[in-house]
Amino acid sequence: MITLLPDAKAVDALEVLSPERQLQVFEELEEEQALALLTLMAPDIAADLVGRLPTKLMRRYLERLPEVQSERLIDLLRYPEDTVGGIMTNDVVYARANLTVAKARERLREPLKTPDFVFIVYIVDNEKSRRLRGLISLRNLITADDEQQLEEIMDPYLTTLNPLGSASEGAYRVIDSHMAALPVVGEEGRLLGLVTVDAAIVQVAPPNWRTKAPRIFS
């Protein structure tokens, strides 16, 4: 059935299947279609799927994927499944704190087109260190004055997650925060990714309910 759908629809159908069914369907696909779907999938879901493939096949797909997607999946595959890093996505929209609102809107126009989660822009010191400073909702970014700097309008009060923390505990923290997502930071406050409320619900929900849960933010 999935082979008959356009790639974007096929990805939607594949992402809501149970992990076991995902793997079964994926292994039946032609390699070119499998690569096309991996390219379109959310990084966290794609990493979970690729990580369950036989080692030789996993390496083959990682070698053939576009470099950006391959690097994102490799970064996620470093974390055990039962850690926060194992349920986070690293497809995150961020901007430098010293940018003006007008310049940030201009620079983020293209990056905002691709991630599944585009409700929050995370504010960092610079692209190299990516030390997390705060966040701005997309609404506030759109309505703020052009000449204001992002650090003037960002919310600096953050709740963050440790990538090596327990996945279940991290999931409950996301749910209890009433936020759409919580950022994940590593050493020296480097922004690594985020855990969406969708991923959190899937983590703590009963297995037979996970495929029925509506996806809200991813």
Report on this structure.
Helix content is about 45%, strand content about 10%. The chain starts with 6 loop residues before the first helix and ends in an 8-residue tail after the last helix. Helix 11 (about 165-175) packs across helix 12. It is globular. With about 220 residues, the chain is mostly helical. The longest helix is centred in the first third of the chain and has 11 residues, at about 65-75.
Q: What is this structure, in a nutshell?
A:
The protein is mainly α. Helices cover 47% and strands 11% of the residues.
Annotate the secondary structure layout.
Blueprint (H helix, E strand, L loop, with lengths): L6 H9 L3 H9 L3 H10 L2 H9 L3 H10 L2 H11 L6 H4 L6 E3 L4 H8 L11 E5 L7 E6 H6 L6 H4 L13 H11 L3 E5 L5 E6 H8 L2 H4 L8
Parallel strand pairs: 1-2
Antiparallel strand pairs: 2-3, 4-5
Helix pairs in contact: 1-3, 4-6, 5-6, 11-12
Overall structural domain count: 2
| N-to-C CA distance | 23 Å
CATH architecture of the largest domain: Roll
Into which percentage range does the β-strand content fall?
A: 5-15%
Order of helices and strands: HHHHHHHEHEEHHHEEHH
Largest beta sheet: strand ordering: 1-2-3
Oligomer designation: single chain
Q: What level of helicity do the residues show?
A: 40-55%
- Briefly note the structural class of the backbone: mainly alpha
Instruction: Based on Cα principal axes, name the global outline.
Output: globular
Question: Main β-sheet: number of strands, strand sense, barrel status?
Answer: 3 strands, mixed
Number of helices: 13
Main features:
218 residues, mainly alpha, MgtE N-terminal fold, CBS-domain, three-stranded mixed beta sheet, two-stranded antiparallel sheet, 13 helices, 11% strand, globular
